[in-house]
Model the fold of this input.
Amino acid sequence: MAKEKVLVVDDEEDILELVRYNLNMDGYKITCALNGEDALKKARSEIYDLIILDLMLPGIDGLEVTRKLKDDQKTRSVPVVMLTAKGEESDVVAGLELGADDYITKPFSPRILTARVRAVLRRKSTEPEDDTAVIRIHGFEIDPGKRSVTVDGQLVGLTYTEFQVLWSLARRPGWVFTRTQIVDAVRGDDYPVTDRSVDVQIVGLRKKLGTHGEFIETVRGVGYRFREKE
Done:
């Protein structure tokens, strides 16, 4: 059974209880907070393995809480999963760009909730530390040192930008990246780019990868991710 500690933040007590109950059943140790101020206080006073954070909070909202968590050396490495209402795509994008790791849309099923929590914690525990490590997944072999990509043993010729996009996505399977995050990974914070130019790179990359291009998935209204499972 899991023993990770999870901080759950939501101003709706029924949602809070639903999340608490289901994660408790999965073996997680749960602490709850009803607002952003209390969440920040608890996150700074104790070490958590994950924070589940509603975006629509009274006072300090979820985006501001995320910003403060990621600006604090003590809490910046703690994964954040956002809870969002349908139609809040712009807030999802903003949260991901602030450093949140994933999101769950309300209403959600308990099975989806626990599966997403497990996935984020698993990705965190296996996140590569070495930027030179060769990535082997789904028939891909991506070597950042040689800047080479093979698919099922066949060498694929990619441009610098296409390689950086693929490597950035593949080293964190399942993570959702906004277009801005993809640009930052490829060119740095100050590089001017439009959403359209990122989409064009993805289209070209998928074409060169053939049937394996399907592993680069579009997350509607948000960005892209590399598929976690075959």
